Amino acid sequence: MASSYRYSVVLEPQEGGGFTALVPALPEVVTEGETEAEALANAEEAIRAVLAFRRERGLAIPDDAIPAVRQVTVAA
Predict the structure, then answer these.
(1) Where residue 1 falls among pLDDT bands split at 50, 70, 90?
(2) In this structure, are residues 50 and 61 in contact, taking their beta carbons and an 8 Å threshold?
(3) What would the DSSP string read from start to end of 8-75?
(4) Are 31 and 42 in contact (CB under 8 A)?
């Protein structure tokens, strides 16, 4: 039976449209999609691939890393 893992996905809107999807707990996962749904589906596929890669090589599978978003004001 396969294990279940839950990971936070950060969606960043792109200027020209679409979204970039990042998974803070798995820095190897960077993907994109034209819509939020497509970006999330691509992230899910990438997460599966990374977990399989890690499992095959005996590497640790990390717990979720909940992203914290903060704003910084700078004078430039």
Answers:
(1) low
(2) no
(3) --EEEE-TTSSEEEE-TT-TT-EEEESSHHHHHHHHHHHHHHHHHHHHHTT---PPP-----------
(4) yes
Which residue pairs from 64-69 have beta carbons closer than 8 angstroms and sit at least 24 positions apart in sequence? 64/5, 64/6, 64/7, 64/8, 64/25, 65/8, 65/24, 65/25, 66/8, 66/24, 67/8, 67/10, 67/24
Domain spans in the chain, listed from the N-terminal domain onward: 10-56
Single-letter code of the amino acid located at 24: P
Question: pLDDT tens for residues 10-61?
Answer: 999 999 999 999 999 999 999 999 999 999 999 999 999 999 999 999 999 9
What confidence tier does 2 reach under pLDDT thresholds 50, 70, 90? confident
